[in-house]
Amino acid sequence: MHHAGPGGVRALGLAVEQDVVDAGVGQGDRGGPPTDEILLTLLRSAVADDAVVEKMRQVFAGQVTPAVLRFGDPADAPRRAGLVVSQLLGLALTRYVLRLPPVVALTSAEVVAEVGPTVQRYLAGVPPMS
User: Fold this and answer.
1) 3-class state of residue 8 by DSSP
2) Domain extents in the chain
């Protein structure tokens, strides 16, 4: 997970999303397949392979949740961590595995601008607007 820099927690969602986009962009800026074949293999096999599912749960428990615990209400961190992961895995699945045309067509900057604020809200523990 990304560490809060000069912008603090307010900029963390954008930084996390940029890290994810940077890790997944393959050819050019138009959502090419991830250059990391391990990531692509994990995404494709996660729903069918119990060992992969368990490994993803371990990453969630060991890395994502502790990172989210640094911000907002600690009692709410597991819920927020789950939301962060759902957003990032959903994006990766639709962009790199299912290759949905509207998601693939987004530039890296557009993905960060659109998804970053949502990840930011989850990280910071800002309640949703009612």
Assistant:
1) coil
2) 9-124
